[in-house]
Amino acid sequence: MDETQVAYLRDQLLTVSPNQFPVVRDALLPHREELAEPLWKVAVDEKQSIQPRFQAACALATYVPDDKRWSQIDKLVAGHLVTRQASDLVAWREALRPAKNQLIQPLGTIYRDTTQREQPRVFATETLADYAADQPSVLVDLLADAEPFQYPAIFDKLDSAKAIPLAAAELAKQPAKDASEDDKEHSAKRQANAAVALVRLGAAEQAWPLLKHTPDPRARSYFIHWLSPLGGDPKAIIKRLDSEPDVSIRRALLLMLGEFNETQLAPSERQPLIAKLVALYETEPDAGLHAAAEWLLRTWGEGKKLQSVAAKLKANQHQRSEPQAGDKRNWYVNSQEQTMVIVDAGEFQMGSPTTELGRIDAETQHRRKIGRRFAMAAHEVTKAQFAAFQAERPEMGEVDTAQYVKTDDSPAVGMTWYEAAAYCNWLSQKEGLTEDQWCYEPNSEKEYAAEMKTRPKTGEHLGYRLPSEAEWEYACRAGSITSRYYGLSEPLLVKYAWYQGSSKPRTWPVGSLKPNDWGLFDMLGNALEWTHDPFDDYPDSSQHILGSTVDSLDETPVADNQSRVLRGGSFGEQPSSLRAASRDNLVPKIRSYSRGFRVARTLPPVPLTPLPPTAGGGSSP
Questions:
Q1: In DSSP terms, which residues pair with 331 in a beta bridge?
Q2: Please, what is the end-to-end C-alpha distance for the chain in angstroms?
Q3: What is this structure's pTM?
Q4: What residues contact residue 322 under an 8 Å CB cut-off, 6+ apart?
Q5: What are the residue ranges in the chain where pLDDT is below 50?
Q6: At 332, is the secondary structure helix, strand, or coil?
């Protein structure tokens, strides 16, 4: 009441506690016009300590919330606010509320800054959820960039009627054609967050199309893995499974369903799905969907049911080396219970762009034409499968791999390239293929060793063999153009590959982690895989402007000093080696406890009834 105390109170305004502050501020309201300039002088004075500048700003928020000079202090105010103690934060947030629109942008910068500690970002999130509660476009924009710890606070403020069209619009955005990989990653994450919001807001039908496989699958992969931790309902997935016509979306729905734990989806709720999944695994014509069902059943502890079906399929097919004409499936099970995925391989971009993280010079990008139909094993050859071969071929080396191979269904490792080739001939014999169709010939000493040969026109023989390097990369990519078949993300790698960061280090049972979209497991990680080809430089892409390099399986005699190509990275390697284009090499006589293999074979050119190209299963990208 004593106007001679205005200056005194103004000075106290800069030092009082958060609870005292509104009392002093409101007492000075009648004098706000005369106080504004002295307070601005303090607020913008960089020589002043930060607390009085901050409290001056808190007063100015009430006195002059729309002053243009807020742009000079908004970052300072937002940055200081999110470092206050939790007990003080609410009081200071309330003091700044009249100027909230001045602070949304700088708070948003803190909210998105991954270099910040998590606690300031949590406070920024809570403040933004409060300040932007009446601004749906701001909320959806924040939600699109939210990390898991931020998502619930922002989502809870959404009004579904206003948020659904905004989230759908975000989902429809595409990065520019010349966008950097970082920009594409950012766009993919925003799309996935928007898709999760649509599912949770009851507009799932607008989100499911994001699960359709495309050459750049990263947004799809983020959506697969984020719906569960961001509060999605598995019942929406189960409902969609029964009506979804697109096979690549159905694959993704199964992979998504496996991300929900028993608290989110109880065993009693899973039980009605088990029979459906077993039927899919046994009869589904698409190899990718067949593999997704296999992975989900194994994830849910139904391995015995898988074994039972595999034995049944083996019994039904062991007399034939591939599906018969008219069979719509693009996979089959051979006499060793190995699932073989059929691929009609065309032309593709092999190697990696110069911008790819982890790239080496030997990965020159070029066009490669395969132009044949082949089958590749969905899994790496297991310890049990290789042991059956060794039992009949005791002259082959047998080494102790117990430190790295703990189970019979983990990849066999430690064999030479020669022994892997001998296994392929043995498998051809087991499959009833005549010797003239086998792909490898022992040397003059009848040994699988130096100077052994591959048959002339190996690529036309129907016997089992190691995949060519191009076949391996083509099948690994499964129609994708990103560095990994699910995208680029290193945090998601643990869902698809056993590597140094997750393996402990050892091999793990094949098929434990997610398959690629064509139904091939462990194409990255677990065991580093021998391929058929000798290691050599790729052709210079500038020399093939008007055409492609034709893939042909090397037929020169195998030499001990000529390295052979290995692909896929192993359980002991860094993420940079686990990419579709990554190459390694080793001379064929050397054993390594991280090296294994998977088999392949050429198939007759008579095509099966094709799946629709949009399905992605085995069709050319």
A1: 341
A2: 80
A3: 0.92
A4: 332, 340, 342, 375, 603
A5: 318-320, 607-621
A6: strand
